[in-house]
Design a protein that fits this description.
heterodimer; A: about 110 residues; alpha+beta; hypothetical protein PF0899 fold; three-stranded mixed β-sheet; three-stranded antiparallel β-sheet; about 30% strand; elongated; B: about 280 residues; alpha/beta; Rossmann fold; seven-stranded parallel β-sheet; 8 strands; about 15% strand; disordered C terminus
Chain lengths: ~110, ~280
């Protein structure tokens, strides 16, 4: 359940931005979370509902960008979609891959009022 | 002109010379309200783990300045981290200064065991937490006060999922698995194996009694992390422990080199240029 600390970190970032912009309320928060970032999306939803209660994010609309895992094969240079960290290149079967997306864990945008 | 809707508020003035300006000011309160309230769109673009990562970077600086070698030991519960640590500390037996940070949900059992080896130790009880984070290490270091040129072992909470995401500022991440756990562990918990530098396969003395395929375990782990290294050992019987001690003493593992304090001071005062690698090996061996 590290998702719990992840959500707590998001609340902290939201508080910080609200103070910085002298806002009162968070209308929307847009997150970018990679499919290979180590986040379980169901656990994340559960943690979200448990944590945001009585925080600045309680009434905020939550948007989530799920970023697909993508990789470049270190041997043949083939670009491919990666579903698991240990998947080999579908063309040459090598495991030396360079993950180019899917490990994001970011607060992208917020609408404050 | 009003910046929000373009209406003329603020450009038209009404004044009555016979009424005080204060009263007039009160009458000139906002004539209209704009839609809900002004909304601000903020491009935040902040990493959710930035607080932990920033603190971990500070810890790295602290460790480097103190010439420390820091290991983050991760594993599932019961794979033998604490026993391995006990044997390691006994084997090093004062040849190099060591310190330990123990992480568990509850109890000081592990710290009590480490204390018996006369090594400075701090126990972190995370309560409901499932992993250690950089802030816990930061707070522990203030109590632990590790000395220069030492090795710090951080024994993480037994968990192969959550600790993977949290950088503690360590130099190397060591994952411990035991042969009783099943050889497909690396495939089941790829995040942890991906971030580890060394994999210790413990309890090899039990190999005759369990269905554990050493080679297939390594193949699984290398699929996730082609650069990972392996050491097979049994902390209980001591088989293979020398490989681990050799790895610990290997200069390649140090960002700088660990020397004992006397050698360090002697070299510094004499102003000699020394062969750091040989010197380091000598100091620790």
């Amino acid at each position: 359940m590290h998702e719990l600390s992840i959500v707590m970190n998001i609340v902290e970032i939201a508080n910080d931005e609200v103070l910085k912009h002298h806002a009162q309320k968070v209308e929307m928060i847009d997150l970018e979370i990679g499919e290979l970032s180590g986040i379980d999306f169901d656990a994340f939803d559960f943690a979200w509902s448990a944590v945001v209660h009585a925080t600045i994010l309680q009434h905020a609309e939550r948007k989530m960008h799920r970023v697909e895992g993508k990789s470049i094969c270190g041997t043949c240079g083939h670009h491919f979609r990666l579903f698991q960290l240990y998947e080999p290149c579908p063309l040459c079967g090598e495991v030396f891959n360079d993950i180019i997306s899917g490990q994001e864990l970011k607060v992208k945008q917020m609408i404050l009022s | 002109m009003c910046a929000t809707c373009g209406c003329g508020t603020g450009t038209v003035h009404f004044e009555r010379p016979d009424v005080s300006q204060l009263h007039l000011a009160n009458q000139r309160q906002p004539v209209h309200e704009h839609f809900p309230k002004q909304k601000t769109i903020v491009e935040v673009e902040r990493d959710i783990l930035e607080k932990n990562n920033r603190l971990a970077e500070r810890l790295k600086g602290f460790f480097e300045a103190r010439n420390m070698f820091v290991l983050n030991l991760v594993s599932a519960p019961g794979s033998g981290k604490t026993t391995l640590l006990e044997k390691t500390l006994q084997a090093l037996n004062g040849t190099v200064a060591c310190a330990v940070i123990e992480g568990d949900q509850q109890t000081t059992n592990d710290a009590d065991r480490i204390k018996k080896t006369n090594t400075p130790v701090v126990q972190i009880n995370t309560g409901k937490g499932c992993h250690l984070d950089a802030e816990m290490i930061y707070n522990s270091l203030k109590i632990l006060e590790p000395v220069n040129n030492s090795i710090l072992f951080i024994e993480n909470v037994g968990n192969l999922v959550c600790p993977a995401m949290f950088d503690l500022g360590e130099n190397k991440r060591v994952i411990v698995i035991s042969v009783t756990e099943g050889d497909d562990k690396p495939a089941k918990y790829p995040d942890m194996f991906q971030s580890a530098d060394l994999c210790i396969i413990n309890k090899t003395d039990l190999l005759p009694y369990v269905n554990f395929d050493m080679e297939s375990c390594k193949v699984y782990a290398r699929k996730v992390n082609p650069a990972i290294k392996f050491i097979e050992l049994s902390a209980t019987t001591g088989t293979g422990l020398t490989d681990w001690l050799t790895w610990l003493r290997s200069p390649a593992n140090y960002h700088t080199t660990i020397q004992d304090n006397n050698t360090y001071l002697a070299n510094r005062s004499s102003g000699n240029t020394v062969n750091m690698v040989t010197d380091n090996m000598h100091a620790i061996l």
